[in-house]
């Protein structure tokens, strides 16, 4: 662990180096500096009145401020029409249901992906191989092997890829400052992070019903195992492991990401994982998840992700991340449903989207704060700290790596998926972060991937 004295020395060197680059050191980079109407942008998965998670539409509208939006693609034609009716587009966009046809026909420079989670990697892979730069909402992957795959494709194609983990950029830079303090030795060494990401619902079973008009339900399900339509399955897909990973890949994709970055393990991973938890009411004890994903075992239609849990991830450097639905200290005096509590040999600090608190924060001097500002710029890859979308477009322009790169996000998602796999197997697991395999547990290794229905995939023409 870096000592505080070393941190301050390095920060001073960073400050001197940045002073030589006035763009990085002084500019906040106005949106007009990166706006380029020659860049053709297409939106895939935009949500709408019949959805629940409409982040795809919001980030696509953000992208339209930096490039020229030319097309929208959603398996629900109603959502295509609603997005296209926005006054910023005025009905001018081409509308598609099949992402492959849109990419092959329109040949966009950039695609923005905001679909349900299990579609992220198949669509991103197709777009990258078609020559597109990609902005994709989190969580990027459904499985560990998908992370390996998308990392390989990004490297092979050389395209710019930004994942929508905005805590790396926005939220008043609370998370960046927390990372800088942990890495700078402000709370000492022997770091443990207590991570709370909230409980998930476990309701069900639910009745299936008729597919709404203008929705291609089979395409919505896509590469996942075939399933009947229900409002709950469509709107609350995050609580179905067929399409997402519950809270582990929802809020875990944010908070585990920040914690691994802070302890300097964002390019590797834990070596041991253990935990306990409960799944939704439709999941019987000892359920065979491998058989389920292979289509050889059935569950009633209900939320099947983990509802309550405590999972521990231990790293080679001695750091430990503990992941809870809600954190309650042993003495009961500290309790929170969402956030990260970093604890070290010299103190502790708490961070979430609303605050950054703790005695180490209160004790910061003016010199400390200046050094932390310099350290944050370094964390931000020596670029101006902007909005997440603007960072992506700046990187498209200069072909550099964005702040939320695919490689560190793959390592974050690997930890998230390992939490779920530990709960699904009920075993204490050992992980080889170099070879990226579980050691001595074949069931866990089988859960690193899923069979896919291939009719909805393909290669660009």
Outline of the structure:
With 461 residues, the protein is α/β, with parallel strands linked by helices.
Shape: globular
Class by SSE composition: alpha/beta
CATH topology of the largest domain: the name is: Dihydrodipicolinate Reductase, domain 2
- Tally of strands: 17
The CATH homologous superfamily of the largest domain is termed Dihydrodipicolinate Reductase, domain 2
Helical coverage, percent range: 25-40%
How many DSSP helices?
18
CATH class categorisation of the largest domain: Alpha Beta
The largest beta-sheet arranges its strands as: 15-14-13-7-10-9-8-16-17
Strand content: 15-25%
* Radius of gyration (Å): 22 Å
Q: Which residues sit in consecutive blocks of at least 5 with pLDDT less than 50? A: 7-29
CATH architecture of the largest domain: 2-Layer Sandwich
Mean pLDDT: 92
Rounded to the nearest angstrom, the distance between the terminal CA atoms is 50 Å
Largest sheet: 9 strands, mixed
Number of domains: 2
Can you describe this structure?
By secondary structure, the chain is an alpha/beta fold. The chain folds into two domains: 25-168, Rossmann fold (3-Layer(aba) Sandwich), CATH 3.40.50; 171-382 and 406-456, Dihydrodipicolinate Reductase, domain 2. It is 36% helix and 17% strand. The chain contains 18 helices and 17 strands. The strands form three sheets. It has a nine-stranded mixed beta sheet with strand order 15-14-13-7-10-9-8-16-17. β16 and β17 form a beta hairpin. α12 (252-262) crosses α17 (406-425). The longest helix is centred in the C-terminal third of the chain and has 20 residues, at 406-425. The radius of gyration is 22 Å and the shape is globular. Residues 7-29 have low confidence and may be disordered.
């Amino acid at each position: 662990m870096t000592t505080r004295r070393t941190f301050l020395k390095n920060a001073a060197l960073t400050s001197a180096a940045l002073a030589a680059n006035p763009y990085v050191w002084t500019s906040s980079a106005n949106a007009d500096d990166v706006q380029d109407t020659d860049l053709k942008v297409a939106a895939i998965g935009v949500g709408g009145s019949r959805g629940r998670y409409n982040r795809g539409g919001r980030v696509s509208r953000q992208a339209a401020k930096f490039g020229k939006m030319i097309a929208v693609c959603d398996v629900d034609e109603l959502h295509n029409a609603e997005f296209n009716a926005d006054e910023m587009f005025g009905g001018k966009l081409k509308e598609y249901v099949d992402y492959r046809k849109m990419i092959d026909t329109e040949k966009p420079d950039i695609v923005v992906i905001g679909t349900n989670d299990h579609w992220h990697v198949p669509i991103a892979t197709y777009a990258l191989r078609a020559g597109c730069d990609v902005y994709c909402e989190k969580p990027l992957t459904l499985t560990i092997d998908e992370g390996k795959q998308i990392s390989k494709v990004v490297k092979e194609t050389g395209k710019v890829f930004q994942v929508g983990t905005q805590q790396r950029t926005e939220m008043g830079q609370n998370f960046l400052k927390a990372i800088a303090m942990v890495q700078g030795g402000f709370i000492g060494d022997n770091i443990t992070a207590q991570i709370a990401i909230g409980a998930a619902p476990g309701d069900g079973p639910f009745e299936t019903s008729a597919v709404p008009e203008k929705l291609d339900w089979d395409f919505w399900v896509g590469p996942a195992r075939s399933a009947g339509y229900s409002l709950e399955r469509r709107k609350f897909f995050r609580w179905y492991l067929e399409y997402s990973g519950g809270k582990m890949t929802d809020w875990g994709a944010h908070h585990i990401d920040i914690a691994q970055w802070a302890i300097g393990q964002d390019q590797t991973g834990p070596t041991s994982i253990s935990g306990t938890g409960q799944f939704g009411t439709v999941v019987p004890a000892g359920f065979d998840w491998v058989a389920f994903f292979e289509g050889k075992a059935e569950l009633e239609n209900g939320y099947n992700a983990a509802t309550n849990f405590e999972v521990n991830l231990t790293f080679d450097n001695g750091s430990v991340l503990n992941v809870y639905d809600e954190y309650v200290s042993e003495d009961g005096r500290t309790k929170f449903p969402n956030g990260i509590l970093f604890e070290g040999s010299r103190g502790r600090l708490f961070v979430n989207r609303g605050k950054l608190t703790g005695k180490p924060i209160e004790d910061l001097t003016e010199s400390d704060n200046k050094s932390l500002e310099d350290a944050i710029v370094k964390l931000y890859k020596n670029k101006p700290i902007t909005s997440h979308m603007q960072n992506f477009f700046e990187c498209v322009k200069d072909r550099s790596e964005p702040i939320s790169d695919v490689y560190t996000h793959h390592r974050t998602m690997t930890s998230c998926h390992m939490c779920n796999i530990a709960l699904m197997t009920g075993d204490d697991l050992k992980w080889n972060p170099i070879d990226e395999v579980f050691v001595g547990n074949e069931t866990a290794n089988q859960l690193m991937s899923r069979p896919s229905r291939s009719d909805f995939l393909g290669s660009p023409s």
